[in-house]
């Protein structure tokens, strides 16, 4: 029997979100129904609301979530009723050319629930990133659920579902940061801060935080940055070189997504170093670099999709580290809010006041 639950919906472009009653179908083959316990508010939700991602309104927002599996459809064996899970937006297919080559974190054919959740008048909803978890319950593909230790706080580990995983993964998966490496992170929002935490976890000897906002640098320092650079008042490239014996960092993580910060990342890295782009650019942005420098400086220029994570591999591991006190995910939860406070949280996010507001149910 389909169920009716409360959820946050973006009905039209730019309009404030509203609390609505939605209809959630019973899980069909390969699907799972999840009772949401917590869901973080991410910039991407705001982008959806502003029509920056697609025009498929109405959207069901929310995608950084943890909860409990309430029901599973036919053929689901990886998760079971009662499992505590973190949701992900890249359920890998196991069959595309990336999966078949043993690189499922690049999967080119990730999937979501086949059935649609709707408004009570039957209007189909588009779940943000195929999740839609600002809802008491949501329907996803079973592969979007990763079982983790239920002792963990849902508000904290739900954040692994998106931005925090992107940042940690940019450092440990894409950038391959290892013991003794020097790292610079440009842009210290939720993603950049997670890259700082990931670098520290991986044993970086120096983690240099670069931002244009002193408040962000103060938080970055709390999370483990060893040095901070305000690139409004100092030249970011010069500053990073100075802090690394004149050479540049082994790995520079760009967590803004702009050509000028990418250029800083490119030149702030040591010869043969690695640049990781995890910030997401917009379609009109262009990058110009001397090709001779691209060749002559060597190394690797990489992009990081969702931290090149494999949820089944990375989520349980990171939750274990969290429970052991080695990964402070609680530090990313600035405030917990109620379901009807998402619009207010967008406002605070827009002003740069919070790392994450998290809806708890
Ligand atoms: N130089 C350095 N830092 C900058 C610059 C700049 N020119 N412009 C902005 N920043 C800083 C902001 O001050 C802020 O601290 O970058 C940070 C961006 O953080 P958020 O807006 O909180 O974004 P976040 O959620 O961390 O995501 C970062 O990754 O997933 C993508 O779409 C996302 O592109 C975005 C990026
Ligand atoms: Zn695949
Ligand atoms: Zn997100």
UniProtKB/TrEMBL annotation:
CDD domains for this protein: Zn_ADH_class_III (cd08279)
Keywords: Metal-binding, Oxidoreductase, Zinc
Xref: Gene3D superfamilies: Medium-chain alcohol dehydrogenases, catalytic domain, NAD(P)-binding Rossmann-like Domain
EC number of the protein: 1.1.1.306
Cofactor: Zn(2+)
Pfam (any one): ADH_zinc_N
A GO molecular-function annotation: mycothiol-dependent formaldehyde dehydrogenase activity
Domain Enoyl reductase (ER) intervals: 14-359
UniProt keyword Cell membrane present: no
Alphabetical list of PANTHER family matching this protein: NAD-DEPENDENT ALCOHOL DEHYDROGENASE, S-NITROSOMYCOTHIOL REDUCTASE MSCR
Family: Belongs to the zinc-containing alcohol dehydrogenase family.
UniProt protein name: S-(Hydroxymethyl)mycothiol dehydrogenase
């Amino acid at each position: 029997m389909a169920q009716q639950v409360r959820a946050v919906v973006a009905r039209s472009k730019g309009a404030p979100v509203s609390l609505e009653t939605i209809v959630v179908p019973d899980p069909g083959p390969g699907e799972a129904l999840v009772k949401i316990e917590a869901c973080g508010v991410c910039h991407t939700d705001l982008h959806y609301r502003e029509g920056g991602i697609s025009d498929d309104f109405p959207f069901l927002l929310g995608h950084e979530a943890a909860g409990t599996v309430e029901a599973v459809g036919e053929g689901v064996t990886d998760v079971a009723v009662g499992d505590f899970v973190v949701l992900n937006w890249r359920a890998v297919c196991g069959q595309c050319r990336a999966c078949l080559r043993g690189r499922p974190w690049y999967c080119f054919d990730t999937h979501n629930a086949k059935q649609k959740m709707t408004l009570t008048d039957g209007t189909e909803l588009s779940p943000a990133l195929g999740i839609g978890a600002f809802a008491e319950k949501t329907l996803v593909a079973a592969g979007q659920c990763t079982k983790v230790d239920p002792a963990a706080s849902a508000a904290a580990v739900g954040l692994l579902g998106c931005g925090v995983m992107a940042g940690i993964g940019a450092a440990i998966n894409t950038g391959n940061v290892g013991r003794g490496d020097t790292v610079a992170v440009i842009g210290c929002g939720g993603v950049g801060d997670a890259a700082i935490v990931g670098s520290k976890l991986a044993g970086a000897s120096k983690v240099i935080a670069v931002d244009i906002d002193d408040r962000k640098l103060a938080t970055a320092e709390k999370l483990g940055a060893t040095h901070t650079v305000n690139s409004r008042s100092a030249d970011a490239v010069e500053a990073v070189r100075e802090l690394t014996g004149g050479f540049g960092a082994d790995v520079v993580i760009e967590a803004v997504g702009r050509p000028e910060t990418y250029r800083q990342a490119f030149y702030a890295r040591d010869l043969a170093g690695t640049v990781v782009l995890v910030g997401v650019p917009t379609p009109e942005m262009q990058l110009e670099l001397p090709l001779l420098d691209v060749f002559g400086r060597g190394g690797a220029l990489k992009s990081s999709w969702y931290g090149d994570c494999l949820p089944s591999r990375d989520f349980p591991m990171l939750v274990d580290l969290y429970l052991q006190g080695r990964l402070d995910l609680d530090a990313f939860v600035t405030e917990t809010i109620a379901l009807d406070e998402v619009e207010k949280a967008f406002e605070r996010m827009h002003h740069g006041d919070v790392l994450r507001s998290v809806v708890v149910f």
